[in-house]
Amino acid sequence: MGSQGGLGAPGNGGPGEGESGETRKLQEGKAARGKRRKGKRKGKAGAGQGGRGSGAEGKTQPPQAKEAAGLGAEAGERAGLGKVGEGGGSVEEGARRIVRGDEGSAGARKEAKGRYDGKKEEWRVRTGQREEARPARAQGRGCQAWGRLAGTGAAMAAATEEEAGAREPAGRPAAGPALLRLPEELLLLICSYLDMQALGRLAQVCRWLRRFTNCDLLWRRIARASLNSGFTRLGTDLMASVPVKERVKVSQNWRLGRCREGILLKWKCSQMPWMQLEGDSLYISQANFILAYQFRPDGASLNRRPLGVFAGHDEDVCHFVLANSHIISAGGDGKIGIHKIHSTFTVKYSAHEQEVNCVDCKGGIIVSGSRDRTAKVWPLASGRLGQCLHTIQTEDRVWSIAISPLHSSFVTGTACCGHFSPLRIWDLNSGQLMTHLGGDFPPGAGVLDVMYESPSTLLSCGYDTYVRYWDLRASVRKCVMEWEEPHDSTLYCLQTDGNHLLATGSSYYGVVRLWDRRQRACLHAFPLTSTPLSSPVYCLRFTTRHLYAALSYNLHGLDFQTP
């Protein structure tokens, strides 16, 4: 029976044959599962080796492929590990389930492989995009860094451009109102009709207009109409190195009387000082000396140590002028002294019998006036010093004297006691009287200061409390304009800017007055002393920024630049 069972056909065998077939199927299922597990282990080992390898095998397996392999293995295990006979099933049903599990696991593997291939392709695309994006990101970071460097460089360039903008006009803006697109000549013509306030507002529109409105051509007309701006009546610019706009700003302080007062020098005993300005130096007489001081950069103070001391007179210095690098001084001892500014050369000679009250020098000629009622003409040439060219009898004490800018004549201001006119003009070459000015002076209306403003115009002041303006082309009998001192004080000195400003020094309380020559009333008054120390203003000088007044005990300064 055993042999018969062993020789039976496979499909028609008995129970023995069925059991041996089912056993083979079980063994084949186990073998398949063992192969799958072995393949799985080989895949893992290959992945580990691929991480250490190179080329395509050295690439790390993406996580999607691992997930697909895991799903296929789980499906195969579920299909092949079903319990035989569970739920009342037979061995054949278990075998059929194993076969179906094999088929299902194969389908799952195909599906997982398809998903894996898709994921792998997607992974490859993404990896390629990132690799392509890396140079772009690196380039972007480089551009960003370059942009930061360029931004820093742009800021430095802007600062440099702004500094250079003060020296050079910026380019005209490409876009803006139609006014900015006009030709520069036409824009200058339009702006020349604007006043100072309108130009200031226009400068606030943009940087280009601010630089454009700083042009000196736009401010010249305003400066010529302003007080003490450095322009003469004929339009000559006496301070070309200073911007015109800055001078106009300071001029407003003169017009409004805004200034800061200070004392520059003091001396213990009463003096009758005289002074002159030249560049950054101030020359002032104290007793029988002339001292030279240098201004500090602000112009409102002096260095305490004098630059030079010029001596030679036995009595007080009454008057002196600066000419051709020389100081020509007149002393109370009746002598004239000549000092070279940059050396120790000094010459003095007897000129008059009494004190020499006044002196002037132009064109190599010296003229002097004295209390002895004479005026004399002297040469400045070194070989002829002390040789009198002309002696003029003035019939009166001479208080002031001035040479014409043409060097052809000079004017004397006398005490108006021995002659009806205190102002007379003399020929410089012959010493003859040319003309006299005015005819209605009261007795004693002496002229203490006189100065030429041009060859045909001059100013005078004195005991009659008037400042008079004379124009020889109009009339010599009557002055063109006059200004009266409000408190009837004697006017010791005067100074003009050659245009509209006039400054005078009074005899009481050290009053300095500013006048606008276009109007008769006084513009401003500055009393520099109190009642116990009342003193005349013996001399005054001013620049476009400061005014200096010499009194009996000190030298005062008025700062109009920084009030």
UniProtKB/TrEMBL annotation:
Chain intervals with Gly residues compositional bias: 1-18, 45-56, 82-91
Biased composition annotated in UniProt, kind: Basic residues: 32-44
Biased composition (Basic and acidic residues): 21-31, 93-135
A matching Pfam family: F-box-like
F-box domain span: 176-222
SMART domains: WD40
Record bears the keyword Protein transport: no
Keyword field: Developmental protein, Repeat, Ubl conjugation pathway, WD repeat, Wnt signaling pathway
Gene Ontology biological process terms in this record: cartilage development; embryonic digit morphogenesis; positive regulation of mesenchymal cell proliferation; SCF-dependent proteasomal ubiquitin-dependent protein catabolic process; Wnt signaling pathway
Biased composition (Low complexity): 65-74
Ranges of the WD repeats in the UniProt entry: 349-384
Keyword Ligase: no
Any one Gene Ontology cellular component term annotated for this protein: SCF ubiquitin ligase complex
Region Disordered, residue ranges: 1-144
Known partners and oligomeric status: Part of a SCF (SKP1-cullin-F-box) protein ligase complex. Interacts with POUF51.
Known function: Probably recognizes and binds to some phosphorylated proteins and promotes their ubiquitination and degradation. Likely to be involved in key signaling pathways crucial for normal limb development. May participate in Wnt signaling.
Protein name: F-box/WD repeat-containing protein 4
The organism of origin for this protein: Phocoena sinus
